[in-house]
C-alpha cells in the first residue's frame, strides 16, 4: 500500500497586541533552524505587497478606510500568499506564522461599527487551515504595561478587551466537533498564558510544537478554514 506523502506543519501564533507574538515567533523560528528543521516564516499583514502597504498606512493612522474595506484588504493580503503557503507545506517545509485569519475576524468584529461575526469570517473561508494555533492569552491591562503599547490604531485597552472575547468565541468553535465537520482536519487550538516570562512561554510553546515537526512530517492533507460555514450551508449574511 502506497503511503501518503508527508508535508510540513502550519503553525500560527495569535493573540492580543503586545502579547509577545513576534518575539515568540522569532524564538521558535530560531529553535527550528538550529535543529536543521526546514521552516519558513510568514507575518500578517504582509506589509511589503501593494495591498500590505495600504494596510500599513491605515494601521499607522496615516489614512482612513471604511471598516468593511480594510477588513477585505486584510483578507486579500492573506489570499495573496495562500498558494505560496500550500506550496511550502507540500514541499515538506514547516511554516511559522505571526497572525492569520483569526486576527482579522477578532479585530473587525470588535470595532464599534458592529460588523457581524459571520460577515467577518466569510472572506477567509477555504484559506489553508493551520495545524496548530498557539493563542497567547494576556489581559489587556497587563499588555498595556509593555513597551510600545498604543503606537498603532487598535492598541487601546477597551478595544483589546473586546478582541479577547472574540478570540474566546473562536477558540470554543474550533475545539467543538460539529456533526458536519471532519474532526481530523480541525486545527488544534492551544491557549498559553503570555503574562509570564519570555523563557517560560517559549518552553511551553515548544512542548506543543515539537510533535508537529517530526521528520516523518504530516500525512493528512492541508485543511481548509470554515468550509462548514459556506453560505450554501445555511449561513445568513
Structural class: alpha/beta
Gross morphology is: globular
User: What is the domain tally?
Assistant: 1
Largest sheet: 5 strands, parallel
Order of helices and strands: EHEHHHEHHEHHEH
Instruction: Report the count of strand segments.
Output: 5
Span from first to last CA? 45 Å
The level of helicity is: 40-55%
Counting DSSP H or I runs of 4 or more residues, the number of helices is 9
What is the assigned CATH homologous superfamily?
P-loop containing nucleotide triphosphate hydrolases
List the helices and strands and how they pair.
Elements: E1 10-15, H1 21-34, E2 39-43, H2 50-59, H3 67-80, H4 82-90, E3 94-98, H5 101-109, H6 117-121, E4 132-137, H7 140-144, H8 157-175, E5 188-193, H9 198-209
Parallel strand pairs: 1-3, 1-4, 2-3, 4-5
Helix pairs in contact: 1-9, 2-3, 3-5, 5-8
Brief account:
Keywords: ATP-binding, Kinase, Nucleotide biosynthesis, Nucleotide-binding, Transferase. By secondary structure, the chain is an alpha/beta fold.
Structural account:
The protein is α/β, with parallel strands linked by helices and 237 residues long. It has a single domain, classed as Rossmann fold, CATH 3.40.50.300. 41% of the residues lie in helices and 12% in strands. The C terminus is likely disordered. GO terms for molecular function: ATP binding; dTMP kinase activity; nucleoside diphosphate kinase activity.
What key attributes describe this structure?
single chain; 237 residues; disordered C terminus; dTMP kinase activity; nucleotide biosynthesis; Rossmann fold; alpha/beta; P-loop_NTPase; 9 helices
Amino acid at each position: 500500500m502506497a503511503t501518503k506523502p508527508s508535508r510540513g506543519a502550519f503553525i500560527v501564533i495569535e493573540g492580543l497586541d503586545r502579547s509577545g507574538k513576534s518575539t515568540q515567533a522569532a524564538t521558535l523560528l530560531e529553535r527550528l533552524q538550529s535543529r536543521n528543521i526546514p521552516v519558513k516564516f510568514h507575518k500578517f499583514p504582509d506589509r511589503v505587497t501593494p495591498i500590505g502597504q495600504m494596510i500599513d498606512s491605515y494601521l499607522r493612522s496615516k489614512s482612513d478606510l471604511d471598516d468593511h474595506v480594510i477588513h477585505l484588504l486584510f483578507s486579500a493580503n492573506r489570499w495573496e500568499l495562500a498558494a505560496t503557503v500550500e506550496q511550502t507545506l507540500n514541499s515538506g517545509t514547516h511554516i511559522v506564522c505571526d497572525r492569520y485569519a483569526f486576527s482579522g475576524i477578532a479585530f473587525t468584529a470588535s470595532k464599534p461599527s458592529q460588523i457581524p461575526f459571520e460577515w467577518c469570517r466569510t472572506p477567509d473561508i477555504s484559506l489553508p487551515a493551520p495545524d496548530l494555533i498557539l493563542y497567547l492569552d494576556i489581559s489587556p491591562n497587563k499588555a498595556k504595561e509593555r513597551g510600545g503599547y498604543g503606537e498603532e490604531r487598535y492598541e487601546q485597552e477597551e478595544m483589546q478587551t473586546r478582541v479577547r472575547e472574540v478570540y474566546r468565541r473562536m477558540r470554543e468553535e474550533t475545539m467543538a466537533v460539529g456533526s458536519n465537520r471532519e474532526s481530523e482536519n480541525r486545527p488544534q487550538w492551544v491557549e498559553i498564558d503570555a503574562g509570564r516570562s519570555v523563557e517560560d512561554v517559549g518552553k511551553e510553546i515548544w512542548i506543543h510544537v515539537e510533535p508537529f515537526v517530526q521528520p516523518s512530517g504530516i500525512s493528512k492533507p492541508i485543511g481548509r478554514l470554515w468550509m462548514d460555514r459556506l453560505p450554501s450551508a445555511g449561513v445568513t449574511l
